[in-house]
What does this fold into?
Amino acid sequence: MTLLEALSILILICLTFLVFHYKPQNLKSLIKRLWLPLGMIPETFTNLHRLHNTLTRTLNRSGGTFKWKGHWFANMDMLITTDPLDIHHVLSKNFSNYPKGQKYRKLFDIFGDGIINLDGHLWEIHRKTIMSLFRQPNFQSVFEAVVWNKVESGLLPVLESISKTGMEIDLQEIFQRFTFDTICKVLLDYDPQSLSLNFPYIPCEKAWVDITDGMLYRHLIPPIFWKVQRLLRMGNEKKLSDAYNAVYHFVDKCLARIQHESINMESEHVHESFGLVTSLVTEFKSQSGNFGYPPKNFVRDTIVTLLGAGRDTTSTTLSWFFYLVAKNPIVEDKIREEIQTFLEMKVDDQKNWNSKEPEILPSGHHVSQNTRIILYYYGMGRMEKIWGKDCTEFKPERWISEKGGIKHEPSSKFVAFSGGPRTCLGKDMSFTQLKIVASTIIYHYHIELVEGHPVIPSASMVLMMKHGLKVRLTKISI
It folds into this structure.
């Protein structure tokens, strides 16, 4: 039993006592007083299965920003905002006033000294290091080759096999396996082949679901609770610990293989084969000057960070993309027509800080150095004051300008890739993978949603589908 469950039982016992000893007309006010020390926690857990929709409704009613009241004894209040001016203020204009801090690092401890956890000068060095690697002359072409190879050797054979049987398929799982294999190949020169006809179980690939779910849980309970759970290896923290071990074991094993093989290779061949891994320390020293040698576990933490980013974000985007396409078959037909009309060749042939003084956000909300700010992107895309009355309608044409080009929005309004100095370094990689996978599937298959299967977002740090995306595929005659 977790401490949270024990607390819930205790409260239930207290409520039962109240039911038998107090008049009904006084019961409501007494219950409110009982819940008061827990802030908005009980309401949040009650609505955890529809967390995002509940938060979005609250944000719409409050004008786009509201303060989430946590436990009074744990200093867990959070300011949740979808206001573009607030987001620009935090991510760009006053970036140096909003470091992630030690509390953030403890919540996301799996990433260690990875870039997602860092602030200040060390963050700048990490960013320059990774950016330099991604900007190597042949990186984009190598990445595209990896993606196309996985499309041909993994994605298409699996889809072909399943479509012939007429069986249901969970597209979200397909995409998670696809992106896991490609990011492993790019970072570690190793394809775990999780996307194969026999759908092998690979602990590291599955661990990320427990990690993203567990991280959200840590945000909702006092740190002392989950720290005790971690000490006792129980509840959510036991799942997180097992997931961490699976990821670390996988990455350490790959790094050991690279080190072993590099010893037996000539230096010029080492760089060609394991460029990203072997270049990390060299690049770090180059960018850091006199800063010194990389922190302990620098390579592992960097790889783990990029693995998580490379698997979850793109696979989740593809899942929701195909959900919307499947619900709007006319759009699917238009996309397929564009592919056939505008591509010069068939899809098959394409290979190729410190802040001590309070601040006032543009929305008028006061924040101090202890205020935890949540930039809520899911709710932001559903704000009428930002996107208009039709914000919840599926209208792809809203992104096309009158001249037929792409309609661009400022990063403070459309924050899918963050903004300011922390703008996502993998943005181009994501678009490359999204376009290749989406065009390949739509070119070859018609997607039909399995009737009655619930498609809802999970309560997680990444907007995965709680029950996956069950579809049936019909081969298109080309």
